Amino acid sequence: MTERPTSARSVQKGGRQLLQMATNRRVNAKENDAPAGSNQSNTTEHDSKNSTFNWSTGIANTKATSVDVNGVVEEKYNDSNSTPLKNLVFKQLDKSPIEVHVRCVFMRVGDIDTLNERYYAEILFEASWEEPRLKGTPKEPFNAGINWTPQLELLNGIGELNDNIAYSVFYDRQGLATVTEHHKLKGTLWERMELQYFPFDLQDLSLSVTTSRSGKEMFFVKNLRKPSGANCRVFTDEQEWYLFEHVDIETKEEIEEYLDDGHNHSVVICSCHAARKYGYYIWNAYFLIFLITSASFTTFPIPLTNISGRVQISCTLLLTSITFRWLCDKALPTISYLTAVDVYAIGSIFSLCLLNIYNGVIGYVYYYISTNTTNSATTVNVHSIIIIDRWALVVYTILFFVYQFGTLAWMYLVPWKERRNMFRMDKINRIAFAPKYDSRRATFMDILRSTTVKRKVAPTVPTITEVDQS
């Protein structure tokens, strides 16, 4: 049986994974986007091989040492009984919290498992902050062992996670340093699937990251200088899902239950959006249920003298609908609410139940009148029952088609409206970062490459606000 998290709480709170590792690091420093080998640029690289890890609260005391190409020795300690060296050497000179600008790019998304509520992703996550202590020191490499870092932790990881970490330092014309911590994550992430509108559902595939630092030290904000998005060209579930390009970044503060400091900790949730392709379910669920229910009209032409034939057909259709619904439920997790296809199927089953009740009542009345009245009265009463039966056919037909058209109207006004909003957000996202790509043919990766080329020419990129003001 496939492993499945016991609950959302156990994954989000108990499965925390530390993204700040002592090894597997690369450090880059540059000034005004100067080319490699320039006197104003110094680049220090450390081995960046892929590594897997699974962090837990019961980790033992460890010590790791890494040497860069210049012979500088960096020592890092992870000791639960001692204070980290970087907290002793570098403390904030002021009390204002540090703004950490985050950016998230979903490079690859796939294996969206609705039943076990998880998905696989390869994500580029960047956290940038200004470092005043590095002002005017472009030749000095950034040392993550003694300098300030945000100490990121993953909340919704499942099992082992592959993480590559790199640091880059960018110096502007005034010599101010901006440090960026790059994470390339590969692994399976947990996500609560919202299935009220199944099979027209729209899922948020999120990456939840927090920090061990309190809200008084730092807080997350969305990076408006660099675009966030999802790569739709490399999407392994393209046959079942449609992946939108834009990524929503939400920041909030929470109190960690396992910490007794009583402080809020900043949390950032980066979400891309995937819409299920519902064509398979339209033909294999809705259309088949429609055919089974519409077959109930064949009971009305059967004469009332053969009421047993009517009841037999309607009961067979009822049992067929119930069996078909159980087959459809095998593709969904056990949830305590009804999905859109459940409501449609149960409505059809309910109409067949009403038809069975009607056939039983009209058959009993016809039999009672036929056997307990005189010949003249029987003819009049039987004719009246036949007229009632024909009006019942008219009422049943009207209710049947009202239910079908009501279902179509609800689909257009509720779940399909969310999809239209997603397409609109994709277009707004493209226009905001690349006005010349005001076309459906342009993808997020085209905009990303164009933005990268522009940054090689210009030392800074204006924000959206600055563009509007100009």
Summarize the structure.
By secondary structure, the protein is an alpha+beta fold.
Give the secondary structure arrangement, pairings included.
Elements: H1 8-12, E1 17-18, E2 25-31, E3 43-44, E4 52-53, E5 62-67, E6 73-78, H2 85-89, E7 98-113, E8 118-131, E9 152-154, E10 157-171, E11 177-190, E12 202-211, E13 218-222, E14 229-230, E15 241-243, E16 248-255, E17 264-276, H3 279-294, H4 307-329, H5 340-372, H6 375-413, H7 415-433, H8 444-457, H9 464-469
Parallel strand pairs: 2-10, 7-13, 7-14
Antiparallel strand pairs: 1-9, 2-3, 4-10, 5-6, 7-8, 8-11, 9-12, 10-11, 12-17, 15-17, 16-17
InterPro entries: Neur_chan_lig-bd, Neur_chan_lig-bd_sf, Neur_channel, Neuro-gated_channel_TM_sf, Neuro_actylchol_rec
GO molecular function: extracellular ligand-gated monoatomic ion channel activity; transmembrane signaling receptor activity
Transmembrane segments: 285-304, 335-358, 391-414
Quickly list its features.
470 residues, alpha+beta, Acetylcholine Binding Protein, Chain: A, Methane Monooxygenase Hydroxylase, Chain G, domain 1, 2 domains, six-stranded antiparallel beta sheet, 34% helix, disordered N terminus
Order of helices and strands: HEEEEEEHEEEEEEEEEEEHHHHHHH
- How many domains is the backbone divided into? 2
Shape: elongated
Mean pLDDT metric: 76
Distance between the termini: 59 Å
Helix content bin:
25-40%
Largest sheet: 9 strands, mixed
Structural class, from helix and strand content? alpha+beta
According to CATH, the fold-level topology of the largest domain is: Acetylcholine Binding Protein, Chain: A
Q: Can you name the CATH architecture of the largest domain?
A: Distorted Sandwich
Task: Name the beta content range.
Answer: 25-35%
Task: Please write the CATH class name of the largest domain.
Answer: Mainly Beta
Give the tally of β-strands: 17
- CATH H-level superfamily title of the largest domain: Neurotransmitter-gated ion-channel ligand-binding domain
List unreliable stretches of 5+ residues.
Answer: 1-14, 21-27, 31-93, 453-470
Kindly provide the radius of gyration, computed on alpha-carbon positions and rounded to a whole number of angstroms.
Answer: 32 Å
Membrane topology: Multi-pass membrane protein
Pfam families: Neur_chan_LBD
Protein name: Neurotransmitter-gated ion-channel ligand-binding domain-containing protein
Subcellular location: Membrane
